[in-house]
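User: Can you help me understand a structure? I only have the sequence.
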Amino acid sequence: MITLIQFPKSSKCLSFSPFCLKLETYFKIAKIPYENKLATSISNSKKKKMPMILDAGQLIEDSTLIIEHLKKNHSIDLDSHLTPEQKAIAKSFQWLCEKSLVDIVVYFRWADKKNWPKFREIIFRGAPWLIKATVANIIAKSVTKTLYASGVGRFTDAEKLKILDDNLLAISTYLADKKYFFGDQVSTIDTIVFSHLVQVEPRGVVLQFEGVLEKYPNLKTYVQNFKKIFWAECEN
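Assistant: Let's start by predicting it. Here is the structure, written out as C-alpha cells:
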C-alpha cells in the first residue's frame, strides 16, 4: 500500500495545502489504496516539498511528479480520455492555479497581519506557545519575503484581489455549466481546480475571501458537488 505523506489537516478535514488536497483527491478518484501519514517535517525531502509518497520503498516528492509516477508505474491515468488540445488547456489552467492563484491565498494567510494569527493557531494547533511565537513567525516572515521577491507581495490588497477575481472568472467562464472541467468525466485538472477553489473559501481565516466564490455560482456548485462525491466524510 502506498503511504501518502502530507501536512496535518484541520478539524474540517480538507487540507489547507492545495497540493496535498490535490493528491489525496486524485487517490480517491482513482481508487488507489493508501494510508495517510501526517507530518510537519520536510527534513527527509530533497525538494523540501509536500506532499510525498512512499511507494515500495521509494520516496517521491511533488504532487505533479507523483501523479506522473502513478501513470508510469501503476498504469493509472485520469486523462486518457482527453484530446491533445484538452491536455494543453488543462496545463494552462494548472499554471493559473499553481503559479498565480495559490500565491494570493498564501499571502492573505501568512503575510496579512489580521489573518496570520488565526491561521497560525490552526496550522500550529497543539504546538507549544514558544514554537508559535518563534518558529511560526520566522516561517511567516520568510514566506512574506519570498512573496515580495516574486512580485505578489508588492501589490496592494485590492490589486491582489483583482488578480484572484480575474483567475476565478477565467475558471468560471471555461467551466460554464459542465459537471467537470471537460464534461461528464473527471480528470486531473479537476483535482487541481477543486483543491485551489477550496482554499479561496474563507474557512474562518481570510476575511478578504468572504463572498468571493459567491460571485460565481457555477464554481460554488462545482466545489459543493465535488465534496459530496469524493469527500462525503467531510460533509457530515
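Now, to help you interpret it: The mean pLDDT is 92. Residues 32 and 127 are 32 Å apart (CA to CA). Let me know which part you'd like to focus on.
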